[in-house]
From TrEMBL:
Similarity field: Belongs to the UPF0177 family.
Protein name as catalogued: CPBP family intramembrane metalloprotease
Organism encoding this protein: Lacticaseibacillus zeae subsp. silagei
Keyword Flavoprotein found: no
GO biological process, alphabetically ordered: CAAX-box protein maturation
Domain of life of the source: Bacteria
Amino acid sequence: MKAYSSPWFWWYFVQGLILTAGYFLAAQGAQFWLWALVLTIIEGGLLLVSAISAPKHWISRLFKLLAVLIQLIVYPLIVFYSGQQFLRVLPGNLSLILIAVLILLAHIPFAKVLFTPDQHYLTRVITTMLVAFMVIYAGTTFTEGLTKSAFASPLWSFAEAGVLAAIVSVLVGAIAMRQWGLPLPSWRFNPNMQAGVLIVLVVFIIYFTLWNAFSTNDSFQSLFIWSWHSNPLTFNWFAQGLEPGIAEEWEYRYMVLTLLLVWLSRHRLALSGGIFITGLLFGASHLINVLGEQNWFDTLSQIQFAAVFGWFIAAVYLYVGSFSIPMLVHATIDILSMVVSNTEASITGSITVYLFQTIVEVVMIGLTVWLLTGRRRQTMQWTLDRIMPKQGALTI
């Protein structure tokens, strides 16, 4: 395992003094963040011991592991909550913009040290998911306790909805993938797409988006006849839907999917396996919603829904070639659904609703399998050549 190099390593030894200074400008939370400072200093000491001995011994490796675990949990919280405390003292739009920029810059050394090139691909997947969760969690609590009227509405909505955290996760992810020698996602459209396949995909995506928002799912007719009612589109709902469209797609359809495809590249089922595992992980990530306002039935239904959607949208991305499509589709689906339902929760409600939802999911699974067979599967080679490293090329 490689030792951390200067100057990134030394940043962590002094970061507690730098980043928690803001907490002592306000009385609230000072005791809690004193413990955060202590943990940060401990972590710096662990990193120092592991770096000095170039961790070959199991004790040094343990020190390094403990340091990384502390860093994963503490660092995003320290950065976002430090920014929050500064905004308590210096409210206003200019301060919010400045703090947002500083939060972005502060995560550069975080990514440079945590995502080391010597990590195994499975370790990279786990680290990616944990870091993304902590960044988004810290970012969505960024505005707690702040006075909304002190900030312009669009800026407040972006901060409150976690869009800032989503942008941070993109930055951290881009640095991580670069350190691992992996390219950024493909943004160009695949020139080998077939017109007929593209028409089928566009028609289904439009149908699925409208069905998800306007269908009551209480009868067979609800698959085709919908209730066209909606609430006004506010900037807040736009921001709420934009956040998962950015963060979740970047995490799962870019980072996790790419890592799994490289890891499984020598296996004959690498393409299907990578898509399948990514979808399962994406579905399982929604289990956290049970801790909020959703009941177990709705949460499990959402897990199933997310897994199937994850399979489908990953296959669509690899077919069309442009990463803008999964981000745009995901954001549009969430924005429209939130505007119509006036809630962020996924509400299934009854067995009947669940059954008709499952019918649509079965169609989506069928389309995913269809994309992964025949000429359509061969068409994905163009995208794979652009998102896979040459040494880990995947041929189908």
